[in-house]
Amino acid sequence: MEARQIRRNVWRALRAGGSGHMGGSCSAADVLAALYFHRMRIRPNEPEWPQRDRFVLSKGHANAALGAALAQAGFIEDAVLDRFYHLESPFGMHPDIKMDGIEMCTGALGHGLAVAIGMALGARMQNQDFHTFVMMGDGEIQEGSVWEAALAGAHFRLDNLTAIIDYNKIQQSASVQEVMSLEPLAEKWRAFGWHTIEIDGHNMAQVVDALEAAPQPHKPTALIAHTVKGKGVSFAEGSYLWHNNMVTEEVYQRAMAELNA
Amino acid sequence: MNAPAVSSAAWRDRAANQTRLAFGQALLEIGARETRAVVLSADTQDLVGIRGFIERYRERFVEVGIAEQNAIGIAAGMATTGMRPYVCAYAPFIAARSMEQVRNDIAYARQRVVIGAAASGISLGVAGGTHHALEDLALMRSLPNMTVICPADADETYQATLATLDIDGPVYLRLGGRMEDTPVNDAGAPFRLGRASQLRAGNDLAIIACGALVDAALRAADSLRQEGIAARVLNMHTIKPLDRDAILAAAHETRGIVTAEEHHLTGGLGGAVAELIAIEKPTRMRMIGMPDEFAGIGPTGKLRAKYGMSAEAIVAACRQLVSHR
Question: Which among B125, B141, B174 is the end of a domain?
Fold first, then answer.
């Protein structure tokens, strides 16, 4: 339910902005819904609550989906979604820490995992029990800095950290396989010392179970969520063209007709 | 304020007149004053001399390995939780390789992360151009929210490091290498962020210097004094925010300004001064620094002389400035 609403709100935001990163926003919608409406310990009316669980959207270009989740959860006004890309809006293509509910400015790829490790270490040093989640794109993990951080997460034995990879198999130019293949991906994370789980990122029961499972002691968790780029709207699914595209009123109406069916 | 946790005799002895080691010593004091202070190393424990901190505050020390991007990202994440990270790093690597993390994760996101950047300028002279940091001031001062400090001696470094506790945003603290820096300030002289300290009075011209070249500026001024030229010397330890008042006063009250720094002539202290006076009070100027080329290999002192970052070069620039009416 919430995931479908996130997708509707993604299209709504992109209509307001005239364009946007639909594909990666909609592939992430189910995991975001599971985090914000089932798993994370949050207080939307107290966004700076020190004990809150942290979420870093390292694949910052999916900010339309994060903004949708934050609006649905009550961190921000619903009307903010209609100001996507607008002058002086807090809601742009990438997360900005100045907006309630946003933990870090992201979007330059390959930054979020290190930041999340810092949050997890900060929790440990201050004897706080909050959990830190970070979501990366599959193309994103072509950045070398991700692997610096992957080493560190395991080295520091951060069982208060979960890295989610939104594995939708398509990046800006073409398929991940064509651009720079990642396979065998789960084996890579395991070899780096992470407790690694693979799930269907659109099967809510699987997503929730994986997020709510107790962490393996002294190991960070890597959750590889197999997803479909542009999930929810037939003409956008599985196409690199919808990584980032124009959204006209006509396209918006066609998409909403499918999402409301 | 409580009595310092570390005696001045003890830290001065261990700092051995090196700014990089004075930073490491100041961290020990910061560890005592601020329970949220955490020190990160990128395999740089001895570079800034933090084994004392590690021994005393093991639980507030993080070794991230040879991974500068990771160091800045982790520091930024820690800062969001209320910790006060101090990143110990090599200037040539932290300013260049992790520039994007510095820009986005700590400057744009305005996190209270302090970078102690040792081995700046051509202090690693023999290591060659891959290990020189002659563009770091230009990079760092171009970032909004960033405070940029380039102390001239160990005492100033110590005071400046303590001063970072009160700075609400990221800080780049530029530190030297193994060469001793001659003390240019009176021991215990207060460090005032963003306020240049005037080390010599004079109204014929002004030498505005930072870091290792402050000592050269003083020697130049003393030499010029014997020729009857009274040079004002300003130690511009804070590159950003720049002390506009002191620079404009020099522009109004003297016949010209000579800047001196161990940095490319593009975008550093000289550039910052020129940007200001070009608009506010056009003034004759000369700039001492590294020309637009990569420095060769060699001992730091000899490289400084070769590329004109010396008292002699400052004297020559000053003479030229006063002789042109």
Answer: B174
